[in-house]
Amino acid sequence: MTLSYISREYIISNSYWRIMGKKINFMALSLIVLISVITASHYKELNSSIDSGDTAWMIVASAFVLLMTPGLSFFYGGMISKKHIISTMLQSFVALGVISVLWVLVGFSLCFGESVAGIIGNPLTYFNFSGVGSQPNPEFSETIPFLLFALFQLKFAIITPALITGSMAGRIRFRSYILFMVLFSLLIYSPLAHMTWHPDGLLRNWGVLDFAGGTVVHMSAGLAALAGAVILGKRKEVSHEPGNVPFVILGTGLLWFGWFGFNAGSAMGANSDAVIAFANTNIASATAMITWMFYERMLGRKMSAIGACVGAVVGLVAITPAAGFVNVGQSMFIGFIAALISNWAIQWKNKSNLDDTLDVFPSHGVGGIVGMVLTAVFAKEVGLIYGETETFMYHLLALVLTSIFAFGGSYILFKIVDSLLSLRVREDQEDRGLDLSQHGEHID
Question: Which tens digit of pLDDT belongs to each residue from 59-74?
C-alpha cells in the first residue's frame, strides 16, 4: 500500500466524517430548535389565560391589604394607654408571622380545599401549598396565578384575628393570645371563609353576598372580640384616654389606603367591578367620618380626631360586603347609617359593664352586621329594593347562624385557652403595663 493511497483514503474518510458530523450537528440543532418551539408553544398555551393587567393589580392589591395590619397596629396602639402601646401593636403585627406559616401548612386548604359538606375544606387538598402554583385555577380566578390568589386571601386571614385584639388590650397574656389566634383561624375563620367564598360553600350556594369580608372578617372578629371581653372581664383601671392620637391618625390613613386593595382587589382583576368597589370604599368611609363628627357635635361634644378616625373605619367596615354590588349613592347611605348605629352601640357599651377596650364589637361587629343587611337591601338586581326577598331572607338567616357560630365558638375557644395557659395577666403585671411585663420593653 503506497503512501499516496493511504493519504487519499484518509482524506476521503476524514471528509466523510466531517460531512456526517455536520449532518449530525445540523440534525441535533434542528431537534433542539424543534423541542424549543414545541416547549415554548406549550408554555405559551399554559399561560395564555394569565392576564398581565389583572396579575399586576392583584399583586399590588395584596400588598395594600398586607399594609392594613401594620396600620391596624398603629390605630389600636394609639388608642390604648402608654404602658400597653407596644404590647397592643405587637398583638396585631405578630399575626403576619403566625398566620402566614399556618396558611401555607393547612389554612388555605381548609378555606379553599375540596368542599366537605359545604362547611370546610379538605385539609389535604392544598396541604403545604401542594398544587398551588403559577397557573390559574378557574374555580377561583381565571386570569391570575393560583398562588397569587392564595397570597391575596392570606392577607384577609392575617388581619381577622388581629382585629380581635382591640377588645382585650391591656390585660391578655401574649402567649395565650397566640394560641387563641391559631385556634380561631383554624376553627372559626376557615369554615366561615369556606362557606362564604368557596364555589361549593353553604352560604354562597344560598346566595349570601359578601364581596370582601363583611361576614368572614368583620362580623367574625367583632363577635369573637365580644366573647373575649365577656370572659376577660373589666380592666383594673378602665380608661378611655388615648396614649398617642397621631398614631391613631396614621393608622387610619394606612387602613384607608390598604382598604382599596381589600375591597377593589376582591374583584380579582383590573376590571369595572374593581373601579366600582374602589369608588364605593372611598365615599362610604368619607361619609361615615363626616357623619360621626357632626353627630358628635350635635350631641354637644367636640369634633375629635379619634371620633373622625373611628367613623372612617366604621364606614370602611360597613361597605366591605357591599363594595362591588351597590352604586356610589347607595354606598354613601351605607356609610351614613353605619356611623350612626355604631356610634349608638358605643354609647350603649360605655353605659354597660362590658369592657371592650377599643370598641371592636360596636365598630367591626355592628358595622359588619349593618353592611351585611344593607347589602341584601341594595345589591344590584337581587336586593330588596328591586322587589327580591330571597337574598334578604337568606342574609338574615346567615346573620343569625354566623353570630351564634362566631360568638359561641370563640367563647369556647377562649375557655379552652384559659384552662391551658390562663388568659389574663396577673394584677401586678397589669399595673406595670403589658409592655414591660410581657415584652420587657417600654416607651419613654
Answer: 999 999 999 999 999 9
Determine contact, residues 86/256, Cβ cutoff 8 Å: no
Contact 96, 295 (CB under 8 A): no
Asked if residues 357 and 169 have their Cβ atoms less than 8 Å apart, the reply is: yes
**What number of CA atoms fall less than 13 Å from residue 272's CA on the CB side?**
3
* Residue linked to cell 369573637: 224
State residue 420's pLDDT score: 96
Instruction: Give the DSSP H or E segment for 219.
Output: none
**Residue 381, phi-psi category: left (phi > 0), alpha (psi -120 to 50), beta (remainder):** left
Q: For residues 321 and 284, what is the distance between their CA atoms, to the nearest angstrom?
A: 12
When divided into structural domains, the chain yields a total of 2
- Indicate if 125 and 177 belong to the same structural domain: yes
**pLDDT tens-digit profile of 236-259?**
888 778 889 999 999 999 999 999
pLDDT value of residue 444: 74
**Do the beta carbons of residue 71 and residue 253 sit within 8 Å?**
yes
DSSP-derived pairing of the beta strands 120-121 and 115-116: antiparallel
CB 56 within 8 A of CB 148: no
187 and 314 assigned to the same domain: yes
What's the whole-number average pLDDT of the chain? 90
Q: Which domain holds residue 76?
A: 52-439
Is the domain of 70 the same as that of 200? yes
